[in-house]
Design goal:
- The complex is a heterodimer of chains A (about 120) and B (about 110).
- With about 120 residues, chain A is mostly beta strands.
- Chain A contains no helices and eleven strands.
- In chain A, the strands form two sheets. In chain A, strands 2, 4, 5, 6, 9, 10 and 11 form a seven-stranded mixed sheet that branches. Chain A has a four-stranded antiparallel sheet with strand order 1-3-8-7, with no helix packed on it.
- In chain A, strand 4 and strand 5 form a beta hairpin.
- The N and C termini of chain A lie far apart (about 35 Å).
- Chain B is globular and about 40 Å long.
- Classes of the chains: A mainly beta (about 120), B mainly beta (about 110).
Chain lengths: ~120, ~110
């Protein structure tokens, strides 16, 4: 079974530039998550999708971050414009359902973003 | 107060030692609990779910204490390969089961 795919793996941009990350979840997984993990901290949930609907985006900085999951499969996360504090690893995860809580999240390898 | 708190460590133990980590959570509506393992510069992976009755998987034992709002992870007979960061995850009920991660506890097992 193929895992969660993410691209790019690494990205270096200057502050105020824009960047986009792509995620392809495990086939059949209805729930997709985007996390931000800053060095030395645990992953922070940015947005959770159930199919193509947003379940929670309370921690997404909506003035600069946006995410979409068209057709309920692939997802993109965009930052525009980037700030220095956005330097982090952006992790995408998927699970088979968000209806009941006891489902394992499968993570992709992440995108390591450096903002200079 | 953070929703999920963990001692960041590092816990530095010799091979064969027994080590225990705790994780406290603040929201009493929390319903699902997990331990994930994250190796350096890798993605998190599920280690085990934590059930009300506690559960054991080989050298690993997880316990839940709802009254005191904490979960624990016990590792017996530590191996060098157990060196990693252990992340506590709590999911809140309310229809959405939003997951919240702790900052992780770093374990270093030395020869």
């Amino acid at each position: 079974e193929a895992g969660v795919a993410q691209s790019p793996r690494y990205k270096i941009i200057e502050k105020r530039q824009s960047v986009a990350f792509w995620c392809n979840p495990i086939s059949g997984h209805a729930t997709l998550y985007w996390y931000q993990q800053i060095l030395g901290q645990g992953p922070k949930l940015l947005i959770q999708f159930q199919n193509n609907g947003v379940v929670d985006d309370s921690q997404l900085p909506k003035d600069r971050f946006s995410a979409e999951r068209l057709k309920g499969v692939d997802s993109t996360l965009k930052i525009q414009p980037a700030k220095l504090e956005d330097s982090a690893v952006y992790l995408c995860a998927s699970s088979s359902s968000g209806v009941a809580g006891d489902y394992e999240q499968y993570f992709g390898p992440g995108t390591r973003l450096t903002v200079t | 107060r953070k929703e999920v708190e963990q001692d960041p460590g590092p816990f530095n133990v010799p091979e064969g030692a027994t080590v225990a980590f705790n994780c406290t959570y603040s929201n009493s509506a929390s319903q699902s609990f997990f331990w994930y393992r994250q190796d350096c510069r890798k993605e998190p992976k599920l280690l085990m779910s934590v059930y009300s009755s506690g559960n054991e998987d080989g050298r690993f034992t997880a316990q839940l204490n709802r009254a005191s709002q904490y979960i624990s992870l016990l590792i017996r007979d530590s191996k060098l390969s157990d060196s990693a960061t252990y992340l506590c995850v709590v999911r809140i009920t309310g229809g959405s089961y939003i997951p919240t991660f702790g900052r992780g506890t770093s374990l270093i097992v030395h020869p």
